[in-house]
Please model this.
Amino acid sequence: MFERFAKDARVVVARAAEEARELGSPTVEAEHMLLALAADAAAPTGALLAAAGLDHDGVRAALERETERSLAAVGVAVPDLPEAPRDRRRQPRFAASVKRALERAARVAGARDDRRMITPHLLIGVLRADVGTVPRALAAAGVDRVALATRAERLLDARGRDGLSQ
Model:
């Protein structure tokens, strides 16, 4: 599947793995992809996220709040948790949530007859999840996922009209 990815999308996927590694996660999840997309505020998808209050720090804060909220729901406070061992040298493997996001992104590209997958496809793939950490974190942050995905679709339309590579 990665052969269809444009350079910007490949960079984001690699950055998602780096986000997971830096956080000590053994797996790359959809939230790591969202962090990676928000990391470059100068890129169209990064700027779109930043305009919604989701720059890299904003995404991280929303994810932290969601973790705390989820743990509190089962009676666990974050300070009560022992520090998990982290091996930042190990390459995290792709988990189901990010695989599904990539599949959704590929379906969006296919439905549009886009030859190449670019970062707005990836963002739409992440945002179209109905369940999971990302939708809960965005809801808690007051972000309308559907409206944000619609703005990402407009980015795709603009890229196509401008004749930029896809």
The longest strand covers residues 27-28. Residues 2-81+88-161 form a domain with the Double Clp-N motif fold (CATH 1.10.1780.10). Residues 21 and 89 are 7 Å apart (CA to CA).
